[in-house]
Amino acid sequence: MGEPVECRDSERMSLFMSQALDGLLAAADRQVLEGHLAVCPACRAEWQAMQQVSALFKSAEMVGPRLGFATRVERRLADKAKKRRRLFGGAAVLTGSLSLAAVTAAVVAVIVLGVVAGNWLNVLPEVKEGTNTVSQIASGVNLVGKGASLFLGDLLRSFGVPMVIGVGIALALLVVVWVWVAVKRPGGYHHNGIA
What we know:
single chain; mainly alpha; 81% helix; disordered C terminus
């Protein structure tokens, strides 16, 4: 027996064979394929192998997904969407909290700086007279600080108890939101039993 001769047109014939098995081969191409198979033993062997595999697939029973597969997939997708919403909600709460803390710190810093600058200038009158620009800036900051402290003092005298209660409720609400975000974070416990 001699060495099998390789077909120069095997790629095109393989495409024709595949189309023939799927019932998509044109009549003219079908005649070309049959003429080639009559003279080429390598392609004929490939054609027989492809027909056997096709027959095996046709005879095998189709198996569908297990019962409830679509429902489980839909639940998992919904859970992932909820986790994403929680994550973005937690980021929004964090950003809001940090912004509120930064604004509060800035206000407190301006008040403290104003009061300290005013007191410092009153203690050192020679500095007050010596540097006119610095003195004016410090006096302005002092006025802002004193005005803010007077305003806050009046506000606390008038609405002290309700304001303290309101701030306490706001802080408690913030703690509840943070605890909720920590418990419901992505990757946490699944309440629907799906792993």
